[in-house]
Amino acid sequence: MKLIRWKVWLLLVGILIISSIACQYKDGNELIKRENSNNLELIFLLQNVQSQGNCNVSVRQNEVVSKTCNRRIRALCNSQIAILTQPEINLLLLDQNSIRKKFSNCTESLGFSGILTLRPSTQSEIDTISQNNKYESVDSCEGAGFSSTKRIATSQELSFLQTAKGRIGQGAERIITNRLATQASKDSANLCLSEAFLEEERTLLRGLTNGEILLEFPKN
């Protein structure tokens, strides 16, 4: 009889221990889940903050400071926008080669894009930019005192213009507006734009050419 009681007691103790471990495991999982949820919310909040705002730029030259403002978001408002590295050039060369092979009418526009003559920023240039350029993230250019009656290019559009495709598109526009360019060259540039570019990309490029769209707010 005593043996049976001991077995029952041990069984009850075993059940309590297992229940305690299970509760701790469950509580631990819940804690981990809550922590993961909080971390995700923080990440989304940071991403949301970084994807907003505009970029106030001050450039000092010969003791004179000029200020402009553009639509670059907080994540892109820094000195890197004025610095060009060799890996970035390598990527541009790779992308332009793909575009040229796919769209033969863009070959001449590529020559006017400036991609083939790019070089990385020297350490001296980087030091000068770091010393004389100041990049300040603001909620909006308008709130920082800038204004314009014309549309200002968005952050996404500014990034597009720095790509191989964006640069080639600008090259095509240069040919089209060049009085010395032959009609054959202009026709080829127009074909490049119509074949390789989306309608909204062509609208942006044309707007920049005719002055309807600005890269940044006028200097203060």
If you had to describe this structure to a student in words, what would you say it looks like?
The structure is a single chain. With 220 residues, the protein is mainly α. It is 58% helix and 11% strand. It has eight helices and five strands. A hairpin with a 2-residue loop joins strand 1 (54-61) and strand 2. The radius of gyration is 29 Å and the shape is globular. The model is unreliable at 1-8 (pLDDT under 50).
Largest sheet: number of strands, sense, barrel closure: 3 strands, antiparallel
Strand content: 5-15%
N-to-C series of helices and strands: HEEHHHEEHHHHE
Oligomer: single chain
Write down how many β-strands occur, each being a DSSP E stretch of 2 or more residues: 5
Provide keyphrases for this structure.
5 strands; three-stranded antiparallel beta sheet; mainly alpha; disordered N terminus; 220 residues; two-stranded parallel ribbon; single chain
Question: What layout of secondary structure does this protein have?
Answer:
Blueprint: H1 2-50, E1 54-61, E2 64-70, H2 86-102, H3 107-111, H4 123-132, E3 133-138, E4 151-152, H5 155-161, H6 164-177, H7 183-196, H8 199-210, E5 213-214
Parallel strand pairs: 4-5
Antiparallel strand pairs: 1-2, 1-3
Helix pairs in contact: 6-7, 6-8
Characterize this entry briefly.
The chain is mainly alpha-helical and 220 residues long.
